TrEMBL record:
The chain crosses the membrane at residues 12-35, 47-69. The keyword Membrane applies. Keywords: Membrane, Transmembrane, Transmembrane helix. This is Zinc ribbon domain-containing protein. Residues 98-141 form the DZANK-type domain.
């Protein structure tokens, strides 16, 4: 079987057409890919336009240049890394030192297991550890035992007022615990 010139020409024409269509499709997909990729990596509009232009003008070598020069992390990865760093920093800041022996102690320990130094006192109402210097539990609002009434928060004073009126007839005048101030 011999190929006549016109069949050969047709074949070459079709093959060229296919190759051209494939290259155009590849070129467009690479531009779209570069646009999507740079959108995840940078907020800078100039950088986005540059990335798309490099790929659009230089085609395959442009993709190579883009892959070399693009920001190494996506914004999401950067955000995750920032979160992890912050969490790490916070955990370092939160672990404090025992005033007795200088070892690291956890924030919720009431005593140092190494030197028996008292670190916290438990709230007598809810039992959570609070600083020795604090006179009010920050978790449940209960004042430490033996504290004067004026150390109560306004909320607690109001909450206890009803009970006061029942127990103490002098409180009926409407004057609150401020009256026993000097
Ligand atoms: Zn200690
Ligand atoms: Zn408490």
């Amino acid at each position: 079987m011999t190929l006549n010139p016109s069949t050969l020409n047709n074949f070459i024409l079709i093959a060229t057409g296919y190759a051209a269509a494939f290259l155009i499709a590849l070129w467009l997909s690479l531009i779209i890919w570069a646009y999507r990729d740079i959108r995840r990596r940078s907020r800078d509009p100039l950088l986005r336009i540059l990335a798309v232009l490099v790929v659009a003008i230089l085609f395959l070598p442009g993709i190579l240049i883009y892959l070399i020069l693009r920001p190494p992390q996506t914004q999401e990865e950067e955000f995750q890394q920032t979160l992890e760093e912050e969490a790490l920093l916070q955990s370092i800041e939160e672990s404090s030192l025992c005033p007795g022996c200088g070892r690291r102690v956890r924030e919720d320990w009431v005593a140092c297991p190494a030197c028996y130094t008292r670190l916290k006192k438990p709230c007598h109402q809810c039992g959570r550890p609070i600083e020795l210097a604090w006179n009010l539990c920050p978790y449940c609002g209960t004042p430490a035992p033996g504290m004067r009434r004026e150390n109560l928060t306004v909320d607690d004073a109001l909450r206890n007022l009803a009970g006061d009126i029942e127990n103490d007839p002098m409180a009926n005048s409407g004057v609150s615990s401020q009256s026993d101030l000097p």
